[in-house]
Amino acid sequence: MDRMSTEDRPPAPRSLAEALRGRDDVSLGRLLRSRPDLITPVPTDLTQLATRAGTRASVVRALERLDRFALQTAEALAVAADPATYDELLGLMAGDDADPAVVAALPHALDTLREQALVWGDDDRLRLVRTARELLAPSPQHPSPTGLGPTVQEATAGMSPGRIQEIVVAAGLPSTHDSVSAVTALTGLFTHRRRMAALLAGAPADSLEVLERLVWGPPYGQVTPDPAPRLRWLLDRGLLLPTAPGTVVLPREVALHLRRGLAHRTPEPVPPVVEAAAVHRPQVVDSTAAGQAYTALATVEELLKDWDEGGPAVLRAGGLSVRDLKRTAVALDTSEPVAAFWVELAYAAGLIASDGEADERYAATPEYDEWRELPAAERWSRLATAWLAATRTAGLVGGRDAKDRTLSALGQGLDRSAAPEVRHRVLGLLAGLPEGAAPDAGSVLARLRWERPLRGDRREDDLRGRLAEWTLSEAELLGVTGRGALSAHGRALLGAPAAPSGPGEEPSGPGDKLPVHHHRPAPPRARLSPAEQAVASAAAVRLLTPLLPEPLDHVLLQADLTAVAPGPLEKHLADMLGVLADVESKGGATVYRFTPGSVRRALDAGQAASDLHAFLAAHSRTPVPQPLAYLIDDVARRHGQLRVGAASAYVRCDDDAVLSEILADKRAAALGLRRLAPTVLAAQADPAGLLEGLRAMGFAPAAESAEGDVLITRALAHRTPPRTAPEPVPDGPPVPDDTLLAAALRAIRAGDLASTTPRKPGTAPSADGELPRTGSAETLATMQAAVLTGEALWIGYVNAEGTASQRVIAPIRVEGGFVTAYDHTADEVRTYPLHRITGVAELADDVG
Question: Region entry Disordered: which residue ranges (predicted)?
């Protein structure tokens, strides 16, 4: 990129506000998109925008979003002169050897800093905004990432004039009449390559070793009151300068000479390449991911089925207990961290929530029933979309918060606002790999750290790195990736462009590493709008649908009271079979076992024996085995023979011999039974306990209502009230859309016009105020005159809420206590009450 010649440049800006005033709307729009905190609320003019862009909180946020090379450029400007020239900055970044990669990358990095309003000024007067310089410049309390120390001028600020003259003379320079010229001469020596080389050529070898230890930082060292000769030689010549008793520092100019001009030991102008650890056939990747997607759906359904009638209790502080998470992991046949991921995913998708009852428990939401009715690919899309946008981070479960409390699944403290951006960025890097290529995880983390480098103490808590690792594993669990590579439906879900062509080699094993092609498509946008996400999700559904197995409408009944489902079953078949039988094993095929308890469960749900026989005959590809038919008939014959109701509870039976058998059984003692009539027993136990006790004794009682009807126990009985999915925690102010951005730019430009338009002499605002002040008679007369002449005026205006503003208007009509005018500030015709206008001023004659 060629730098603009001096003749082509507009006049140099004198402040950041002037630099912003010289930008067009496209450039200002890019600034406001990249730093949305600057328009929350919308600034009144460009001066206020510049002031806000220089506040500490906003600058820190902007610095944290720079890539490593742009941040290194800002750090170099912080140790350069203020202002600095482009050539001086280039010398700090590329060094004496003028690294070609740095030379090529620096213009873009500098343009990024300018666009972010962190740097302003032309190439011959580059200025880092003051707050950024304060944050990045070296100081004893906050060392610079460059490892440089203070300048000679800064380090000698408190030194006696006599000592400064001694140093100047020892360095081979003539003495001066004052300290300022002496420091200038010493600085000139240290920054002169040839003269500095000659000075160091006469240094003892052990003195040079001291300099080598300090040159890349930290630049501070400790000395005794009587320094060794090697240190004394350096101190006498100012190559080390005292900063405090017992502490010396290597001046910045000396370090830069020893570094051959480099501000950083290792400039990183080019992002690390994401490498492919293995390459698979795209068909294998897609089919593997589709299998994982189906498993994800089955796992979530199993979780919700386990919580159908009321799940675990909600802890007082919120969330699941450690014991309940362990039970959930056992039920899902997985580890606790993975179980936490499925629980949090279902919660993020709005499928589970707390029921809000006095004895609060987790349960499925009504949304879950609607979700189950959707086709499989659409159900997966709902889960994957919720995962992409969620700020709740399951990987934190089991860790500790700032108050050393354990973080629990579904509890507080799991939101991390950076999670969605990291997920999109990691998957975007995968989208840049050749089709079917699985990334090397280390190279992905290295790339992310280049894009968002860690600063200061945060190196000990690499949250983005952990989020990236969790993203890679969660994407595989969810079926967004297969064998580590991004699937076709995962790519569509991101709204990513088509994958680049593969490298042409044969599929490699896990140990092979292939470099990524440099001609990669642009990564997908970090966030899609709701409309764009809907289109992307529909595309993902279309790609995934043919890869998912078709649900079966049959099972294979076995003579050992089992049924084998050779694949996924249709919903109504799976639901009914889940009631009639118990799942014995899972895998490629699911094995169900029929037991007296499972058959009784189906009868309790309102099924008759004939219904069960007909169901099995209709859905079995093999004849119904005789043992199974006998089991159904035997349980059905005894089912409901006993009736349990509320007295506290009672048992009634038409066969008094059965009741006598119960009374004689020692196991019935705990139920507190006594005979009220030949066919009725009263119990001290409640109806539920009585039912369980009789079933434990081998009977098959049925519950009945107060009217004597058999109560039918149906599945899916417990649901929460309607609940909305948890809202993601925003990572700062939202990026403005086009409509908001256009309106904000119009308001800022209009406010700036009102605040900067020249006025006629003698009509400036009052000394304290920001609005003109004139009497009502003068205001009215000036307005009427402007209507006749067509001139524009500058007014102060206070609206009904008491908010004051200044505007440039061209009056059209004045009548009835109102002025109708074209408002240049709002770019439209408006009517203002005259009593709300604080004053009016004429604009200068040369203002059009």
Answer: 137-156, 494-531, 752-774
